[in-house]
Input
Amino acid sequence: MGRFFRWLFALGVLAVIAAACAVALVLAITGKSPGEALRQVAAQLSILGRDDEINAPFRAGDTESQRFDIEPGDTPAQIADWLVTYGYIGDGDLFVNYARSQGLDTQFEAGTYFIRRSQSIAEIAHQLTDSANSFIPFRVLEGWRLEEIAEAIDANPMFGFSGAEFIAATYAPSSVRQSLGIPDGANLEGFLYPDTYRLAPDTTAEGLVETLTTAFMMAVGPELMDDVLNQGRTLREVVNLAAIVQREALHADEMPLIAGVYQNRLDIEMKLDADPTVQYALGNSRGAWWPQITVADYSAVNSAYNTYLVIGLPPSPISNPGLAALQAAVYPTASEYYYFRADCRDDGYHDFAPTYEEHIANGC
Output
């Protein structure tokens, strides 16, 4: 028995020495205090055999990114509690112990992150140490109206504001309003440039408006702006026409010719008869922002935006055009055409005609 206890004592001493060596090694590598080093070793021991849980996605099919904020002073335990509460992970203690075992618990950084429930504990823990790589991907399509941008905001859980707040911000006074020639009380429809953006996570509704209008001014550039002024036109008039062209044309190479048709009509004070203006006037009353319309709508939709009833451009732009449509409005193709309609080839192009009789003859 004496020999057994001596062996047992020796094993205990060796275990203590091994633990001390492990702590010493951690201290040497990380520079942590003895208490911190002991907690890290304990955490490493606690997660032994749990690699599958640590590296497996919590909900494999849920790939939508969600907004997650870490406030200054939040502890690893508090962060873990919020992750469990919002359904990103299932075991808060395992998250804390994994983070501590990797030395990540002291590296969690206050900021905004975009994480997915399909990520693992390990992936989330590493991601939460650097908020600098967080951004909101956001795309505005050519020809969208203001409300469609707002709907895209509401459909994106990364934003910290609503589509309604964005719309309100487009009415607010801004430094660009005067330079763009937009009167007080009007929104910035037409000047919210369509593109794909990487937005900072702390972007506000006002900040997004500024980003879109700044992108518009950069896309237009000084040369095009000078040409507009030299033509005796205002930028708002050009955008107004470009917004209609954007909704009419499916192909960019046809935009200058369509713009030329509308310019011919404007020059002789002929009604534009543009279907998209009627659609704009209808709004979402038929379950879509650009609904199918009928011949009856040409006279039945009583609105200043209905160019089948009103001569000249609408009171304001009806959509947010891209650069090709803007260039077409500034540099329309000169022609003898006053009419156009979708061709019968089903290719998205149009047939053009100088007279109404020829226009009717182009029908399918």
